[in-house]
């Protein structure tokens, strides 16, 4: 796949200011792009080269105002888990309409949900979409609409799929605030489901770098890519790596079924129950196609653990 020449002076608009969107904005600035970072409030820590912008992109007017004259738009919007089935289709409708009107390219941050239960089979971009959960079917339907818009020539779209996030700034993840605070303070950490099964985790910095690469490389448009992700190991192996890094043992509370723990309250876990299969069968994501095509390797898990522990140490000191 031949490289395209990046456009360093073109505006890149990032929709969503969570860990992925914020990290992506920083990565795009590092690559020389002017960036607009959009969420409903337009507040938060500023960064050189990043314009904060307030808009509700679940509305047509909000999406169009947010996108402005951007050349590339990145959809990293997420909402409360209990609102996803209602809100995410509205966001798609508004954002797709806006990029169709402006001609901007659209890079969508996606999940593994459309694959559904795989029985432990390795997930590649060619794996069948066989989701049976409500949120999995919703995601699959949205993805097909994105790709249909591209095939029809209405928009230029590419999707980057990630496994569970891990890394600096990542709190609401199965390898986030349920694990690192307890590990650093000698408390309990949570392990979801069968922690001896292999499970893929994607470093949040690789999410940002992967999406930025898709934004700069339009020859990848019109398909799904798996963002760079380190080879899967068991969650127990990662917990052991964390133990060695923090220099102390910790207790592991294994949640064999969904129940509240740490940042995951009762409402979240009730909604997450249909997705809990991700922790009772191997979740193995293969990102080799992206790595070969774009020449980008994922961060090794040991380095990911180091970076994440360092961030959580500072986060705990600041609380």
Could you explain the architecture of this structure?
It is a single chain. The chain has 319 residues and is an alpha/beta fold. The chain has a domain of 194 residues: 3-Layer(aba) Sandwich (Rossmann fold). The protein is built from ten helices and 13 strands. The strands form four sheets. A seven-stranded parallel sheet has the order 3-2-1-4-5-6-11, with helices on both faces. Strands 7-10 form a two-stranded parallel sheet. The radius of gyration is 19 Å and the shape is globular.
State the main characteristics.
319 residues; alpha/beta; 7-stranded parallel beta sheet; two-stranded parallel sheet; Epimerase_deHydtase; NAD(P)-bd_dom_sf; Epimerase
């Amino acid at each position: 796949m031949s490289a395209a020449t990046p456009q360093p002076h073109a505006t890149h608009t990032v929709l969503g200011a969570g860990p992925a969107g914020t990290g992506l904005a920083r990565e795009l600035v590092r690559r020389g792009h002017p960036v607009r970072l959009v969420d409903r409030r337009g507040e938060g820590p500023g960064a050189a080269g990043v314009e904060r912008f307030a808009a509700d992109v679940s509305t047509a007017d909000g999406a169009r105002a947010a996108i402005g004259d951007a050349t590339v738009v990145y959809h990293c919007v997420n909402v409360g888990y209990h609102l996803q089935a209602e809100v995410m289709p509205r966001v798609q409708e508004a954002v797709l309409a806006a990029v169709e009107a402006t001609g901007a390219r659209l890079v969508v941050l996606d999940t593994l949900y459309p694959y559904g239960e795989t029985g432990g089979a390795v997930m590649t971009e060619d794996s069948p979409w066989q989701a049976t959960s409500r949120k999995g079917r919703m995601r699959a339907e949205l993805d097909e609409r994105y790709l249909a818009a591209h095939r029809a020539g209405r928009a230029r779209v590419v999707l980057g799929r990630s496994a569970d996030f891990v890394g600096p700034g990542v709190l609401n993840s199965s390898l986030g605030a349920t694990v690192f605070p307890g590990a650093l303070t000698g408390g309990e950490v949570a392990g979801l489901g069968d922690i001896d099964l292999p499970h893929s985790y994607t470093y949040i910095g690789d999410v940002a770098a992967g999406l930025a690469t898709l934004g700069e490389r339009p020859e990848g448009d019109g398909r799904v890519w798996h963002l760079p992700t380190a080879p899967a190991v068991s969650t127990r192996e990662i917990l052991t790596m964390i133990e060695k890094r923090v220099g102390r043992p910790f207790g592991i509370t294994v949640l064999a079924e969904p129940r509240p723990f740490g940042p995951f309250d009762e409402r979240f876990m009730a909604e997450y129950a249909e997705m809990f299969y991700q922790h009772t069968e191997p979740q193995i994501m293969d990102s080799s196609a992206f790595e070969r095509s774009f020449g980008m390797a994922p961060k090794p898990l040991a380095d990911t653990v180091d970076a994440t522990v360092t961030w959580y140490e500072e986060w705990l000191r600041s609380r």
